[in-house]
Amino acid sequence: MGYQYLNEKMIILLLIKKILEKHNKKISVAESISAGNLQSFISSISGASNFFEGGLTAYSIIQKVNLLKINKDNAEIVNCVSEDVALEMSKGCSLLFNTDFSISTTGYAEKYKEYPPHAYISIYDKELNRSIVKKIIFKSNNRQLNQYICTEESFKYFFIYLKERYNIK
Fold first, then answer.
1. What integer pLDDT is reported at residue 1 of this predicted model?
2. 3-state secondary structure at position 64
3. N or C, which end of the chain has less CB nearby within 10 Å?
4. Domain 2-163 has CATH 3.90.950.20
5. DSSP string for 122-168
6. Per-residue pLDDT at 2
7. CB-based burial of residue 100 (10 Å sphere; 0-12 exposed, 13-18 middle, 19+ buried)?
8. Would the pLDDT of 3 be above 90?
9. Beta bridge partners of 118
10. Is 31 exposed, middle or buried (0-12, 13-18, 19+ CB in 10 A)?
């Protein structure tokens, strides 16, 4: 993970910043499995307030329902870990912060009951009223490593989405 890992992530974030600023767009994040890492890395960029409205880290179903307006009945069935919950979290986050885009993460950073470590990353595009989701299966049972992998994958996924959205080569 070291210095090179952080540099790669920061390069992607700087490119995201450049795209969002060019198009006068704002982002917010709703985190569970990534445990605040998205917010931490975004806010470490100089000028983050030009494109980042804020974020939240919510672990409990109650907070996800109250703040992000996810479907409580569905969330209870899946313990807040599913593609649908990730989609609802990203849309709810965009509405809460009134942003053009949002990223959400949910999952298990380590084995939980019969479930292997995995995550769902969702991106919501308010203008298109479009959500997309990606599932990651982690190879490790190392909680911190998986949280960082989820963070890195979230930024990569969003960067790829922005490149496609704005037809950037």
1. 44
2. helix
3. C
4. yes
5. EEEETTTTEEEEEEEE-S---HHHHHHHHHHHHHHHHHHHHHHHTT-
6. 47
7. buried
8. no
9. 108, 137
10. buried
In angstroms, the CA 118 to CA 19 distance is 29
**In this structure, what are the phi and psi dihedrals at residue 36, rounded to the nearest 5 degrees?**
90, -5
- Determine the Cα–Cα distance for residues 140 and 157; give it in Å rounded to an integer: 20
Confirm if 160 and 168 have CB atoms less than 8 A apart: no
Helices (H), 23-114: 37-43, 61-68, 72-78, 83-97
Separation between Cα atoms, residue 25 and residue 99, nearest integer Å: 8
User: What distance in Å separates the CA atoms of residue 167 and residue 145, rounded to the nearest whole number?
Assistant: 33
Helix 143-165 vs helix 2-22: angle between axes, to the nearest 10 degrees?
30
Q: What are the structural domain ranges in the chain? A: 2-163
Residue type, 89: M
Element (DSSP H or E) covering residue 15: helix 2-22
Model pLDDT, residue 113: 94
